[in-house]
Each structure stands twice: as structure tokens, then as C-alpha cells.
TrEMBL record:
Domain GH3 C-terminal residues, every copy: 388-493
Classification via InterPro entries: GH3 (IPR004993), GH3_C (IPR055378), GH3_M (IPR055377)
Superkingdom, natural source: Bacteria
Record domain GH3 middle: where: 297-362
Protein's recorded name: GH3 auxin-responsive promoter family protein
Coiled-coil ranges per UniProt: none
Stored PANTHER family: GH3 DOMAIN-CONTAINING PROTEIN
Organism: Olleya marilimosa
């Protein structure tokens, strides 16, 4: 197997050496032209005259001036719903082979996002590019002969009319290249098990049959799987089961809040590589070890725009105001949060994906996910994004020498005014709630001037409850289902928070 590893590593190194560097700005211009020309004869393309846009002196400007922003509800109600009526050539030529079911965060109603064959090809190419970038990480040859555990949603896709439906991780796993199937675990039979608990239990039983070198999946669900394997085999850490585990490919959410609790499950350090695979496409991946930022996939099937993440551009429900300005890669700046807007080979146009990012390196088009537009906590002027909330959690972990893998909060009205009411998921946080609340409050006042101003006015303070992290997973299971792309909402509105508090009290 070491010979195989050397061959694979050598091939990757050769491909990396022969692949020309991509100029992100030029690549994006080509992607936009390809999107416009390919979709010009669709219903959408005709409605917005893509042919004229593609021939304009500045197609990117003409595109912005002609096509409005769309969130899921807007594009689905006006356009994608026609696909379910049997129409084709709606927002992309033909009909999509798949629909990705996604609620983004836990929720009972799934979005149905088209996934075309062109998008699957783009995702596969981005995956190949990511594998090629592993040559930058100085991994030993033996790593490339080990197996990879991909923990996603079920690959038992549901047939509906003339397409298949499932979560994006299940769709991509069911379309892995044939050459990779020998490395892929838990294998097709286990991956098709719909019940997440049963699937993870089966993984635990068979775990020692596999020589796992890499893990891939959303951190919260990966942690639960690893704990199940560790408990089943009565060992202290996962390396006692998989001694050759060297790489964890994270995705879906920022890894930072999970880092300490994840590392506690290991017997030795692993290389963590961040990725950004959403239901709408493969947006970015970490391409080099010098940074934990991710490089946008600028030469694939996605055209990017960015709206400065400022309160005056965001509606209360997290959608964009029509007058919000967008910029392209050539005009972005560091130290500025942006709302991500994408147009894709699946027929999404100027689509609000719901995530916010910041650029860490403009020339390389490298980014970090900073949160969700709906998770922006601006009640009574506090203006806290998820990255600031994550920073506060890491501060608590360091201050109290603990791990807090999950949390959620709400700006809630009590009898004496508004408080930020936090629920922290931790098994080892034993401080008094008021001490934790004071530490949170002081950190946020020092870290965010708007929060400090709000604390001097309408925001009375912070309240904290510490609960088992398992309750967060059970909430996800009760509201949708476990595993896959389901992510815990970090900030809730008051109505949702009432349901959450009732659920916590019951559990």
C-alpha cells in the first residue's frame, strides 16, 4: 500500500506543478460570460436579456443593473417552482437531475435547490483541485493509501417525478468517482442508512475493519460519531481505533468553536482543512497550510458578488434591500464582512446564499466564513455577527479551561428589559452562571464598540444557562433530522427561542 501511496502522491505533485495559477479576477469574468451565454435562451435569460448583457462593454455592470437579488423564496416562487410543474429551460438549460434538500439551519421546511449535471461536474472538479492542493501540506506518502470517512447525509436519495432528492452531501457521495470508491468509507451500504443513529452505530461496530486516514464532515456531527466509536470500543481517543488518522476536512460551519472539543477526542494532532460546500455548490477550500482561510473556487461554475454586511443593507429577516450595492473580486477589501451573492450553473442568479465572509487575502481570493445574515444580532443596536460570538465562546473556553462546542442565544425581553440570553452546550463548564455571564459581557464590551454602547442604553446585560451538548443534537433531530448539512442556529428570534426553551425544559 505504501507503493500505491507514493504513486498517488507523485501524481498529485506532478498535477500541481503542471497546473497554471489562476488569476481570480480574470477567471470570474470568464465564468460570468459562460453563465450568460449558456443560459441566454432559458426563460430567465430571455426575461433579463442575457444576450445583450453578455455583449455589453462591461457585462458585470450590465448584469448588476439588469438582474435583481434573489433569496430562496423569491427565486423559487417565481422561477424554480416551474421546474416542479414539468417545465424545462427555466433558469438553466434542460431540467436538473437532482434537488438538494436544505434548510441551512435546523428547520421543518426544506428548501429544494436544483443541482444540475453541470453543477455536479463543477463540484467534482473543485474536489480534484482540493486533492491536488494537498501537495502543499507535506503529507507522507502513506497517507494517500489510507481510507477516507465521509460523514454526510444518507445516499439513499428519494425518486420524485423525473429527478432525485436528498441533501447535497448525500448527492455528492452518491456520485463519487469510481476510482475513489475503494477508499470511500463507510461504503455505499452504510451510507444509504436513513436513520442517523443507526448509521453511526453501524460505523462504530465496523470501525476497526477500516484504516481511516482522513475524516470529512460537519464538526458537530463528526464529534458525535467519534464519541460513539470511542465509547463502543471502550478506548480513550479515536487514534486507538484509527491510528493512521492524519487529516480532518471540516465544512459547513466555522471550525473554531469546535476546535478544543474536537481535539479532546484525538490521541495526536491532525491536519485540519476547511472547506465550503453548500447546497448551492462548492464555494471554497483551504489550499495551503500557512492559513486556515479558504480559497474561493473562481474558475468553476460559480460567479461571486459581495455586499458589504452593514445594518442599513439588511432587512430584519436577513434578506437584502434592493438598493444594497455589490462589488466583485476586483473591488473587495480585507477587514470587511460581506454577504455572499452567487450565480451558478444550477440556475441560481444573484442568489443570497445566507452566509457572510471576510477576505484575508484579496490577491489569492482567500476568505473566512464569519456567520449568517439571519444570525446577525442587532436588537437594541448591539450589532454582533457570529464571528464575534464565536470569539466570545473561545474566550470562555480559555478563561474557564473548558470546551463549549455548541451555543445559541436570543435578544429576549424580560420584565426589566432586554437581555442577551445564552445557552451554552458544555460537559465541563462548572462555573456559576453569573460568573460566566459577567465574563461574556466584559469580553463583548471590549471586543465590539456597538455592543458597549448598547449596554449603556437598552441592553440590560447577559443571562446564561449551561446544558448538555447532546440537547443541541436532539433539537436538530426533533426539528429536522440528525447529521448531514443540518447546523444549529446560533441566533434565534423570540418565537423560535420560546420553542427552544420549552424543548430544553422538557429534555
Amino acid at each position: 500500500m505504501e507503493i500505491i501511496g507514493n504513486i498517488i502522491k507523485g501524481a498529485i505533485n506532478i498535477k500541481e506543478a503542471l497546473t497554471p495559477e489562476v488569476n481570480p479576477v480574470e477567471a470570474q469574468q470568464k465564468v460570468l460570460q459562460n453563465l450568460l451565454r449558456t443560459a441566454k435562451d432559458t426563460m430567465f435569460g430571455k426575461a433579463y436579456d442575457f444576450e445583450a448583457i453578455s455583449k455589453a462593454d462591461n457585462p458585470d455592470v450590465a448584469f448588476v443593473n439588469s438582474v435583481p437579488y434573489f433569496d430562496y423564496n423569491q427565486i423559487n416562487d417565481k422561477w424554480w417552482s416551474k421546474l416542479h410543474e414539468g417545465l424545462e429551460d427555466v433558469t438553466w438549460p434542460g431540467k436538473p437531475s437532482y434537488f438538494a434538500l436544505s434548510s441551512g439551519t435546523t428547520g421543518k421546511t426544506s428548501k429544494r435547490i436544483p443541482v444540475t449535471d453541470d453543477m455536479l461536474s463543477a463540484i467534482k472538479q473543485a474536489g480534484i483541485d482540493q486533492v491536488t492542493a494537498l501537495s502543499n501540506f507535506d503529507l507522507p506518502a502513506e497517507f494517500f493509501s489510507k481510507e477516507a470517512m465521509m460523514l454526510g447525509s444518507s445516499t439513499d436519495l428519494k425518486e420524485k417525478d423525473d429527478h432525485l432528492e436528498g441533501e447535497i452531501s448525500g448527492i455528492t457521495a452518491s456520485n463519487i468517482p469510481s476510482w475513489f470508491k475503494g477508499f470511500y468509507k463507510p461504503g455505499e451500504d452504510i451510507a444509504k442508512i436513513e436513520d442517523w443513529d443507526k448509521r453511526v452505530e453501524t460505523i462504530a461496530k465496523r470501525a476497526k475493519q477500516w484504516d481511516i486516514g482522513a475524516l470529512s464532515g460537519i464538526p458537530s456531527w463528526m464529534e458525535l460519531m467519534l464519541k460513539t466509536v470511542i465509547d463502543y470500543h471502550k478506548v480513550d481517543n479515536i487514534h486507538e481505533v484509527w491510528p493512521n488518522l492524519q487529516v480532518y476536512t471540516s465544512g459547513g460551519v466555522a471550525f473554531g468553536p469546535y476546535q478544543k472539543s474536537f481535539n479532546a477526542l484525538l490521541g495526536k494532532p491532525v491536519t485540519v482543512i476547511d472547506t465550503y460546500l453548500a447546497s448551492e455548490g462548492f464555494l471554497a477550500f483551504q489550499a495551503r497550510p500557512e492559513t486556515d482561510a479558504m480559497q474561493l473556487v473562481t474558475d468553476g461554475g460559480i460567479y461571486f458578488e459581495f455586499v458589504p454586511f452593514k445594518p442599513e443593507y439588511i432587512n430584519p429577516d436577513g434578506s437584502l434591500k434592493n438598493e444594497a450595492p455589490s462589488v466583485t473580486l476586483k473591488d473587495v477589501q480585507i477587514d470587511q464582512d460581506y454577504v455572499v451573492i452567487i450565480s451558478t450553473v444550477s440556475g441560481a442568479w444573484r442568489y443570497l446564499i445566507g452566509d457572510t465572509i471576510e477576505f484575508t487575502d484579496v490577491e489569492r481570493a482567500e476568505i473566512k466564513i464569519t456567520g449568517r445574515t439571519k444570525f446577525f444580532l442587532n436588537t437594541v443596536g448591539s450589532q454582533l455577527s457570529v464571528n464575534k460570538l464565536d470569539d466570545a465562546i473561545r474566550h470562555l473556553e480559555e478563561k474557564f479551561n473548558t470546551t463549549i462546542p455548541e451555543y445559541t442565544l436570543c435578544a429576549k425581553r424580560f420584565e426589566d428589559g432586554f437581555y442577551h440570553s445564552w445557552y451554552l452546550g458544555s460537559e465541563s463548564l462548572n462555573e456559576a452562571n453569573n460568573s460566566i455571564a459577567n465574563a461574556l459581557d466584559e469580553f463583548l464590551k471590549n471586543a465590539n464598540k456597538n455592543y458597549k454602547v448598547a449596554r449603556g442604553k437598552a441592553l440590560e446585560g447577559v443571562k446564561v444557562e449551561v446544558i448538555s451538548p447532546e440537547i443541541f443534537a436532539e433539537w436538530s433531530g426533533a426539528n429536522k433530522k440528525k447529521g448531514g448539512q443540518v447546523k444549529m442556529e446560533r441566533v434565534m428570534g423570540e418565537d423560535k427561542f420560546k420553542d427552544w426553551e420549552a424543548f430544553v425544559a422538557k429534555n
